Amino acid sequence: MSRIIKPMLCDLRDTSWNQRDWIWETKYDGVRAIVNTGTGNIQSRSGKDKTANFPEIRPETLKPAILDGEIVSYANGISDFNSIQHRATSSDLEFRQAKYPAEYEVFDIIELDGQDVTRLPLIQRKELLEAILVPSNTVHLAGHTDDGVAAFALAVARSMEGIVGKNLNHPYMQNARGWVKVKRSQIGQFKVVGYTAGTGWRSTTFGALVLADMGHDDYVFIGEVGTGFNDKAIQHLMSLMTHSTPECQFSVNPYSSGNQPTWIENGPIVKVKYLEFTNDNKLRFPVFTGIKTEA
To answer: Which homologous superfamily does the CATH classification assign to the domain defined by 186-291?
Structure first.
C-alpha cells in the first residue's frame, strides 16, 4: 500500500437506540485491517504491514479496491480476540494458521479502481462494496441491520462484544470518530483488599475500593472502583472493612510508596459492572452494583 490509511473510528455509547438512516453492525473482536486487493497488502490500524501474518486473507474484487474491515478468528461462532492475538507474529505460521484460522469481515470501501470514494455517503459505499466484492470461505461481506435494539439484544444473548452504529448519509472520515460503538456490560464478583482515601463528602470514608481477582491462588490486582455507591452502601462497606493490616495484599505492590491505600483483611466480595478487561488486566469503566451476601 503506497500510503498509510487511518481508518474511521468509533465513540463509545452505553445504550442502543433506533433512529432514521442508521445501521448497526457486529462489533468484531479482532484486528482492524485495510486491504488493497490490487497488491494484496494488509495494513493494521496503526499503519503496520501485516500481509505476512495472514496469507489466507486475499480478498478478490471485480476491480482493484482498498477495503476496510476486521480480521477475526472464530471460537464457537464468536470472534475471539485471544485467538487472533496468536497470529500477531509470522513465526510458526503454519501451526498458527492451522490452529487459529483467520477470516476477513469487510464493512467498507475506501478506494475503487484508483478513485477515492470516501466522500460518498455510506449507503453508496455499501452498494459499491456489495457489487464488487467476491466472497469466499475466508472473506465475507459484513452484515448490518437498521434495528439497533434487536442487534444489541442478540449481541448480549450470544456474549458478543457489542455493536457498531453508522449513519448511512455520512462520508468516510479517516482517523475521525464518526461511528458509535455500544458494548455490553459484564458483572463480576471481586474481593475488596483495600481502599483509597476519600475526598469531599467522602473524606471520612473512602474514595475507591481496591479490587482483586479471586480466580487465582494469589490475589491479582485488577484496579479500583470508585463510582456507583450511595450513602447506605458506603456505610455498609465501612462496617465490613474494619480489619486493617500494614501488609500489601498483592505479591507485587501496584501503588507507589507515597500513595498507599488502607489495606484490609477479610474484606467483602462486591459485585461490579464493567465493560471489559484492558490489555494490562484492569477493569474498564467499573461501577459498583452491590455486596455479595452469604447464601
So the answer is: Nucleic acid-binding proteins (2.40.50.140)
